[in-house]
Design brief:
Elements lengths: L47 E6 L5 E2 L2 E2 L14 E5 L7 E5 L13 E6 L5 E2 L3 E2 L5 E2 L2 E9 L2 E8 L12 E4 L3 E5 L15 E9 L9 H8 L5 H8 L11
Parallel strand pairs: 10-14
Antiparallel strand pairs: 1-4, 1-6, 2-3, 5-14, 6-7, 6-8, 9-13, 10-11, 12-13
The structure holds 2-acetamido-2-deoxy-beta-D-glucopyranose (2 copies).
Keywords: Signal
Protein name: Expp1 protein
GO molecular function: metal ion binding
């Protein structure tokens, strides 16, 4: 895979909604390595990575570095997933955790990242430990003139938790599932695979405005059933609230 320059590439690519294959129609971005820089236009594919590790593994001293930065020396068992969504299209990415990969064993936190000279990385976000697992996330990719500026996790609130016995509200803003009911090592029955809803904001290289973020915030009031119906049967998280 193109990302061979990243230090953590002993790690494996886990799962991805879009396959790193030949350029899809309308895709003018030839950069497939999440640790290289690109400038995108609407309709391009954009490659970014997710690294899983303990939260302190993403820091050197008090500075959070990109997982692409060799100084970080992310050790095993940090693990990597690479995605290539289409810019300005609403996508739901999944990392299947029922068949071996355990985010808790990998350290419990994830960071989204892309770029090298123009490196952007999200803050580490809590995914899972032995008691609780967060399975649904919203990631906003913010561009300025086609360059990624920022990646941030948006808090989804605890609405999806209410009235469900196996769900717990963390810090009044994140809905989590009891890890012992999750499939995988825990022998539970619930599919707690990670689902990440993406939204794009800012401008592309022609200064066209990316507005899938606007669409996501509006659509959430209604229903994303059509978009997500292929995974609705298996994802357990708060995406259920849309269906
Ligand atoms: C798991 O994480 C939750 C939320 O961050 C925390 O409240 C809890 O104490 C942690 N449990 C263990 C066993 O580390
Ligand atoms: C994860 O993989 C299992 C086994 O292949 C499958 O049954 C399940 O539907 C998958 N979950 C998601 C969310 O894709």
């Amino acid at each position: 895979m193109a990302a061979a320059s990243a230090p953590l590439l002993l790690a494996l690519a886990l799962a991805s909604a879009s396959i790193l294959a030949s350029l899809a129609a309308g895709d003018t971005n030839g950069v497939y390595d999440p640790c290289s820089d690109s400038r995108i236009q609407r309709g391009d594919g954009f490659t970014f990575g997710l690294a899983f590790a303990g939260s302190s593994a993403f820091f050197s001293g008090s500075t959070q570095l990109s997982p692409c930065d060799r100084r970080l020396n992310l050790a095993n068992p940090s693990q990597l997933a690479v995605f290539r969504p289409k810019v300005d299209e609403i996508s739901l990415l999944t990392v299947n955790t029922t068949t071996g990969f355990s985010p808790a064993s990998a350290g419990g936190y994830m960071v989204a990242f892309a770029g090298r000279k123009y490196a952007a990385r999200s803050a580490p976000v809590f995914v899972s430990n032995s008691s609780v697992t967060v399975s649904s996330f919203t990631l906003v990719l913010e561009f300025n003139k086609g360059r990624l500026q920022n990646l941030h996790w948006k808090k989804d609130g605890c609405g999806a938790c209410s009235g469900k016995s196996n769900f717990i509200c963390l810090g009044k803003q994140t809905c989590a599932i009891r890890t012992n009911v999750c499939k995988s090592q825990n022998q539970g029955t619930m599919d707690c695979s990670i689902g990440i809803q993406l939204a794009f904001s800012g401008t592309d290289k022609h200064e066209s405005v990316l507005n899938s973020w606007y669409e996501v915030s509006n659509l959430q009031q209604y229903s994303l059933y059509g978009l997500y119906s292929n995974v609705k049967g298996s994802l357990s998280g708060q995406f259920n609230k849309f269906f």
